[in-house]
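Lecture 7 notes: from sequence to structure.

We start with a single chain of 803 residues. Read the sequence below before looking at the structure.
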Amino acid sequence: MSHCKPWKWSLSFIFILSFLFTSTISTNQELQFPCKPPQHNSYPFCDTSLPIQARAESLVSFLTLEEKIKQLSDNASSILRLGIPAYEWWSESLHGIAKNGPGINFNGTISSATSFPQVILTTASFNRSLWRSIASAIAVEARAMYNVGQAGLTFWAPNVNIFRDPRWGRGQETPGEDPMVASVYAVEYVRGFQGGSVLASAHADTDKSILTSDDDDAELMLSACCKHVTAYDLEDWGSFTRYNFNAVITNQDFEDTYQPPFRSCVEQGKASCLMCSYNAVNGIPACAREDLLQRTRVEWGFKGYIASDCDAVATIYEYQKYSRSPEDAVADALGAGMDINCGTYLLRHTQSALEQGKVQEKDIDRALVNLFSVLIRLGLFDGDPKKGKFGKLGPKDVCTLKHRELALEAAKEGIVLLKNNDKFLPLAKRSISSLAIIGPLANQTELGGGYTGIPCEPRSIVDGMQRYVKKTTYASGCVDVSCATKAGFSEALSVAKESELVVIVVGLDLSQETEDHDRRSLLLPGYQTDLVNSIASVSKKPVILVLTGGGPLDVSFAKEDPRIASILWIGYPGETGGKALAEILFGDHNPGGRLPVTWYPESFTKVPMSDMNMRADTSRGYPGRTYRFYTGERVYGFGYGLSYSKFSYKLLSAPPTTLSLLSTGSTELDSFSKRARRSAYGINHVQIDDMKHYCDSLRFPFEILVTNNGEMEGGHVVMLFSGSPKVLERSGRSPEKQLIGFERIETVPYVGVKVRMMVDPCEDLSIVNEDGKRVLALGNHSLMIMQQYGEDFELRHIVSIIL
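Now the structure, written as tokens:
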């Protein structure tokens, strides 16, 4: 979702409508909620005994054409004669209730909400249960805000696009570069947010059946929206903007990289909303691609509504030049399967599109049934929401101690230790007489990144350090993050010289990477590198370097410099980030975060950001993208992250060294195997579609014992990878390695922890061919564990499986 829009007057119009809506609701108590007795509860759509679809169709049948059109905007108009109030669809909840979007306001009883770490840092924890717990906590606060009239029930999060290019300004909002990780995150967020599992334990009288149901028509606590379908990962680069960009994607990349998170979001997460993106996909704007949008319903079983990104319908005509008129753009979007337009384009052009015969009323009815079905599932047409299952939630449930502790835990689990020469960290408590904190972000409390609300109790990094060292001195060094001058260097050098120990905080903020703004360089902005080197040259001891921001940075200079003892990446850690960092530096928490993205060298900026190909192409000097296909040098690799402890692995349950496709004894599968086709790579394979009924019989457990060989307890992430037959790897069309499983465990010194993962060959050992079909190659497959050796990581071969 976007709050930066190409038509600013249109955005203003939305907010004017929102203001009028809020004013109307506050002065007209009769329209607080639909189906209010005694005047408006006798309609069939208020009958809770009827199926959701029937209720939605009934409601649409009562509407005039003019009323229908006024429901096609994010700011849906009231229908006075039916007792239906206006409704604002646009609220945001990426990593806490955000200020973006007119559906949220902090000017009432609730003036703040818990600010969790930005998604990219939370993902670095590789902790599924943490991801779901955060989503559930956000849901509790969102529903509480709805109950006091400060939020809607439909939220446009999560962002599960792949972080394909390190320069992307919105990569910070995503779960990273790996499609499997992004898929898992999508499922956990949606299930936690729509079902509110935290609420089940917090309120014993809550009907828990609604919190765990897999039914697409089940009641919802809130509605989550997976965005942006699809291949959206460019804001402003060269002559391209997100509004005019045409993402040219191969069938292979489409199926094995760009689409998996959205498919999982629907099939496993049961998301009630999808959002189509600004960009075109292979020449057709995403919001006008019928094959793209209808596939979600026909193949994936999606039951929900499809929203456009804000003014994305307008871009079909105005920027993409795909349609010949505004009316054609409306017809293209509605015909493709989009249901609601964030913006006013449909409000202004649908009537004329109808008059010109380009839109049929049945297309509008279909869209409205999808929209009202979600609102009915949310209980909006069941009477007074305050008397419902979630009516007890209110201000007492926002910014709770439990939620702030969860935010702290998320920051601590996500922070990544990138360098720790000679075990410089953790620092000894009470042994440091004076500490200098230097950097333009060190004393800032706004460390949440994009889509942040108003935090409950924001604290800076300086605040966090002062809990451990009373004599803590601060100097900014740079006026701001862009660090365009060296005006503050002298003060910083003076402070550094006088202190026993120095922590330098540099990196990125929203002036460098954000919506509508991509980076041009992977280096530290401005004179930040000079600041670090200058401080390191005068410090009494080696310095500690702390990096902020969501995008990868080329800090090769610091990686190799012995004057810089330790490097930590803290992303955008949210309101508890200062405390989290201090606890790690002083040994109250053992770092265990892992990078969810590859950190590339500055030379990668020569690669056109507009090139959507994932796989390397040596014929044109193209190095590929992400850990799965990139062939160049790395500053730090995907999955990199040190700990204060060392861990060893022991295989407990060896998988079979040979898996026969005939093991089921099925004559039908025997037939599939005998007609396994020979691919262009010179290797036999079987299409997964031919095997889908037999995949379960091929699954096997993988079990290892992980032992913490250090003196500190702490979390540890186990990462299991698969490798394809070598002939496929050499072709460059198959990933060299592919993450197929991960598990975060808690360990204590010298005690082993069993980790068990199930391996599904059809999913985990298969690849996508050039036709976009998933196939299982016959031959020698590898299972590998990522293991630390010194301060480097390598994939340790565990076992080979012959298919």
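The first helix runs from residue 8 to 27. Keep this in mind for problem set 3.
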